[in-house]
Design a protein that fits this description.
Layout (H helix, E strand, L loop, with lengths): L1 H24 E7 L5 H17 L2 E6 L5 H6 L5 E7 L4 E7 L4 H13 L13
Parallel strand pairs: 1-2
Antiparallel strand pairs: 1-3, 3-4
């Protein structure tokens, strides 16, 4: 059982470090075509929960308010979720469609651990 406890502590430390990284370095941004639509409302609730559970900065942006972003980021779906890296001023699409906080964190951890195998899309740069 010692291994289980150590793994749980390691996971908790990793989650704490990740939350710090998320809070300091990235913003989780949801773009929506219809902020009053069902999908958008579900994502907004998920973002509120993610902010509460992980301390991450979340934003929801209606494309009607920033229409240039639709073309710049290639947004085609009703709801699309991105990470904005503050220091690099770069966007990374995380998921087209709904995403819950736990899945976002898992996807973000995966991306961060494997980012040497990925590159941020140049067309998503500011």
């Amino acid at each position: 059982t010692g291994g289980f406890t150590n793994n749980a502590l390691k996971d908790e430390r990793e989650k704490t470090e990740l939350a710090k990284h998320l809070t300091e370095n990235v913003v989780f941004v949801t773009f929506t075509k219809d902020p009053n639509g069902t999908l958008a409302q579900k994502q907004i609730l998920a973002n509120i929960n993610m902010r509460r559970d992980y301390g991450v900065d979340t934003r929801t942006i209606a494309l009607a308010d920033f229409p240039e972003m639709e073309k710049r980021l290639g947004i085609a779906n009703e709801v699309e979720n991105f990470v904005y890296y503050k220091k690099q001023q770069k966007w990374q699409r995380i998921r087209r469609g709904l995403i819950d906080g736990d899945t976002f964190v898992k996807d973000f951890i995966f991306f961060e651990k494997n980012k040497g195998n990925f590159k941020l899309d140049e067309e998503l740069s500011l």
